[in-house]
Amino acid sequence: QVQLVESGGGSVQAGGSLRLSCTASRYTVSTNCMGWFRQAPGKEREGVARIKLASGSTYYADSVKGRFIISQDNAKTTLYLQMNSLKPEDTAVYYCAAAANYACYLTSGALKAPTYGYWGQGTQVTVSS
Question: Which in 10, 21, 24, 66 has the greatest CB count within 10 A?
Fold first, then answer.
């Protein structure tokens, strides 16, 4: 079973940057994708970015395209989310997730929460104006 632990959240002013990390322990060979999601108060959890572990191919939500970068380390045990040009609307709890489901390869499933079977506990990101 995959265990995921996020870190790197915090408070920043609009226009600033943060980098989130997610460390995976007890990794399984069946994990195909890793993703970042976020959930703001009163809103549904939304997908932010996905990376295919085998190829490194990435996919982003339109709301963060060009500002956020998802990446993984060479050992593929740590996932990152570099967040630049942050906006107040980026304020949320950010979660990393792992998917064995091949639906994560498809644009229809890449940023959908039900595609992912393993989740971290989340880290708060607050962007002030």
Answer: 24
